[in-house]
Amino acid sequence: MTTRLDDAALDQLLLQARTHRAWQPREVPDGLLKELLDLMKMGPTASNTLPARIVFLKSSAAKQRLKPHLSEGNRERTMKAPVCAIVGYDLKFYEHLPKGMSPVGGFDGNSDLAATVALRNSSLQGAYLILAARALGLDAGPMSGFDNAGVDNEFFAGTDVRSNFLCNLGYGDPTGMRPRGPRFAFDEFAQIL
Ligand SMILES: Cc1cc2nc3c(=O)[nH]c(=O)nc-3n(C[C@H](O)[C@H](O)[C@H](O)COP(=O)(O)O)c2cc1C
User: Fold this and answer.
1) Which of 12, 27, 134, 155 has its CA 20 to 30 A from that of 107?
2) Over 80: is that where the pLDDT of 1 sits?
3) Is residue 186 part of a domain?
4) For the chain, what percent of residues have pLDDT higher than 70?
5) Whose CA is nearest to atom 31 of ligand 1?
């Protein structure tokens, strides 16, 4: 039913794709952000619980609200990115499931388990976001260098949503990009038993 993607697609998704920290001054249309989430949301999560919540910061006013919570190294590059996505997760995801879906039990009164499931599955959804962005011809710059509590207070106050990581999106400027970091050889991080 499916076939192997061609080499150009593998290059665009992973083999040649890089993390970007500098950006061309080129707008990302809202329609493309909607298409991005239409792709990303189809990636699998446990019991289809879909805990990720995404906030796209696109206006300079929205990015200014983020600015004080960024680490110094991430600050200016994020202000110059066309879009910064906050990848968050809903700690009460089990109460907010897609329409038509039956309730998922086992989480009420077990907030540790709910938090673990929310973090794990929103991280997966964040990875789907990065790959979906690359599939649509965008570049991504994920970041954990920020104050989560500050971002949560600024953008998610009074809700059950917490920030997981940030991801700049746009069209990367590869000028001055650092060399590709090394990766493990198969035997260094994997076994086939
Ligand atoms: C969850 C996550 C958090 C990251 N946090 C930061 C960050 O705060 N600042 C930064 O400059 N890069 C950050 N990075 C970028 C990584 O260093 C980069 O993706 C990695 O070195 C691989 O680079 P490559 O995609 O160019 O091979 C982060 C990446 C991920 C996935």
Assistant:
1) 155
2) no
3) no
4) 99
5) 142
Q: CA-CA distance, 51 to 89, in Å (whole number)?
A: 5
Query: Of 12, 14, 16, 19, which is best to mutate to test ligand 1, by the most ligand atoms within 8 angstroms of its C-beta?
Result: 19
Ligand 1 — pocket residues by CB below 6 A? 18-19, 21, 73-74, 142-145, 165, 180-181
pLDDT digits (tens, 9 = 90+) for 113-132: 999 999 999 999 999 999 99
Determine, yes or no, domain membership for 178: no
Asked whether residue 24 is domain-assigned, the answer is yes
Helices 30-40 & 111-135, crossing angle to 10 degrees? 120
Residue nearest to ligand 1 atom 28, measured at CA: 143
Residue nearest to atom 20 of ligand 1 (CA): 19
- Rounded Cα distance, 34 and 155, in Å: 20
Only one residue has tokens 């086992």, namely 106
